[in-house]
Amino acid sequence: METTTAKGWYSRGYQPHFDEPELVQSITFRLHDSVPEAVLERWRLELGLLNPTPSDDPRQVELRKRLDVEDAGYGCCHLGREDTATIMQNALLHFDGTRYKLLAWCVMPNHVHVLSETVPGHPLPGVVHSWKSFTGTAINRVIGTSGTFWMPDYFDRFVRNQKHLESVIDYIENNPVKAGLVADPTEWRYSSAWLRTRNKY
Q1: Count of the separate structural domains present in the chain
Q2: Which end of the chain has fewer CB atoms within 10 angstroms, the N or the C?
Q3: What CATH number should be reported for the domain holding residue 88?
Q4: 163 Cβ partners below 8 Å, 6+ apart?
Q5: Spatial separation of the C-alpha atoms in residues 118 and 97, rounded to whole Å
Q6: Could you give the C-alpha distances from 81 to 33, 55, 87, in angstroms and in order?
Q7: Phi/psi at 102 (5° precision)
Q8: pLDDT in tens, 52-98
């Protein structure tokens, strides 16, 4: 059952997270095979990330940069299908305005970027768990698989100011362009950029 108390800084043994009501957070979660575990562990070792550290630690920033390998389309890329990407996007939109406030998002073939503002009574860990639990089950059913769908943890970073906010939105919505999937962000239909230009969001 989802708790209604914010946790501040915390970790489940993976990445550190910061949870606070009305905080704008950039969140990334990935399919279970989007980054080889051996590569991830090697990078953590090289960067000295053996213990949880805040998301603005320079080593965490470097790790996120290295994880841009995800855009190369590593792994099964189950979210590259119209039906599965639609399930994911609809799940994000479902509780927008009640459990969180969506500011931007992009469903990529092997990962998801979300920028949202947390709402009192609905801490970030519970929100992300809900997204992953529902979509993992639903998509496994659609594609005829079972078992682990998502990587166990997720990355989050709180937005510091207006300039940072604009930078994060630009990064999220231009992800498909950077990956070579489309020429313009508004062409990627599983994103806030696509819906916004069609007056649907």
Answers
A1: 1
A2: N
A3: 3.30.70.1290
A4: none
A5: 10
A6: 16, 31, 10
A7: -75, 135
A8: 777 678 888 788 777 765 666 788 999 999 999 999 999 999 999 99
